[in-house]
Amino acid sequence: MRRDIYAYLTTATLATALVLSVFLVVSDNVLPFSTQATVKTTSVDVVPEVSGYIEQMYVKQGQHVNPGDTLFTIEAGPFKLAEEKAQASYQQAIYRFKRASNHFDRINTISNRSFTSEETTENAALTVQSAHSAMVSAEADLNLASLNLDKTEVKAKTEGVVTNFASSKGMYASKTASVLHLVGDQQWIDVDFTEKGLRSLSTDDTVNIVYDAIPGKVFRGKIESIEPAMNSGIDRASQLVNIQQETRWIRPQQKVRVRVQPDEKLSGIVAGSRASVMLRGSGTVSDGWMTLLSWFRFVY
Fold first, then answer.
1. CA neighbours within 13 Å on the CB side: how many for 99?
2. Per the database record, which ranges form the CusB-like beta-barrel domain (predicted)?
3. Which of 89, 33, 57, 56 is nearest to 209 (CA)?
4. What does the alpha-carbon distance between residue 55 and residue 13 come to, in Å, rounded to a whole number?
């Protein structure tokens, strides 16, 4: 009797393994399925356009900000002095230009009466041109100084949530390093399917999604795009041919990156969360398998 039980268990185990293997082989070709799916989002590095010491922080970790909100300010003192210096130089350049113009007008009037040489008139004209160029340059310097002063107030250029917040008042902020990051609200899923199922995938196809973070539930989404190429499939003109040496009898299957847009955004899902995705097709097989998988997520 005990041998019969072991025989039944062994047969049932082998049958289950066989059915599962057949299912996975068929799904790879007809209803592509992948556990290699990751939730992605956009991230903006907030880098000041001028360097200086942070005067005040106006946000905190996890705070939601909108475009135009002030994030932090950099000490404006040095930039105010630079603007005042540029303003003074601009006023001097205006005065020199006006004086050169008046001098040229006098020389030109005298020249018309033949009381001065042609060379003197040309020199006066060149002086006017030089003074005008200096005035234009000084005006540009003033505009740049004013712009740098405005840049001491760093504002959000996009909507997002503050993260990687490690700066504080008094720290030096460089225009070559980020002070904080803004994580965008938009999310999508990058899925790596085996290339065998590529012919079964099309944009706008409905897929079933099971998130590791939300066991027991199946969500829906649509295929937004299918990557047309991978890094290994691009030949660059400036590089020599790179031949991959493959010594295994069975090589790993190539993966194709597919972007999926979920039908709904979930509050419990963050960028980097893992998921499993399967093409829905007619619905019966995919719905059943993904529902079973979602319950297994309670265990692993």
1. 8
2. 188-233
3. 33
4. 68
**By the 8 A CB rule, do 278 and 207 touch?**
yes
- All residue ranges of the chain with pLDDT < 50 are none
* 3-state DSSP helix/strand/coil % of the chain, to nearest 5: 40, 25, 35
Handedness of CA 243, 248, 253, 255 (dihedral sign): negative
All residues at 6 or more sequence positions from 172 whose CB lies less than 8 Å from its CB, including other chains: 51, 52, 53, 54
- Is 131 in contact with 93 (CB distance < 8 Å)? yes
pTM of the model: 0.72
Q: Where are the strands (E) in 111-267, listed by range?
A: 153-155, 160-163, 172-173, 180-194, 206-211, 219-226, 255-262
What is the DSSP secondary structure assignment for residue 256, as one 8-state letter?
A: E
Place of tokens 């300010």: 73
**Please, where are the H alpha helices in 160-280?**
none
Residue with tokens 């030949």: 235
Name the segment(s) of the chain with CATH classification 1.10.287: 77-150
Position 272, amino acid: G
Distance CA 179, CA 171 (A): 10
* Residue range(s) in the chain whose domain bears CATH number 2.40.30.170: 28-41+186-296
Domain 77-150 has CATH 1.10.150: no
- Give the three-class secondary structure for 137: helix
Q: Which residue has the tokens 């006023």?
A: 91
> What pLDDT was estimated at residue 102?
86
User: Which tokens in the block code for residue 94?
Assistant: 């205006």
Name the CATH topology of 28-41+186-296. Elongation Factor Tu (Ef-tu); domain 3 (2.40.30)
pLDDT of residue 3: 61
Helices (H), 184-268: none
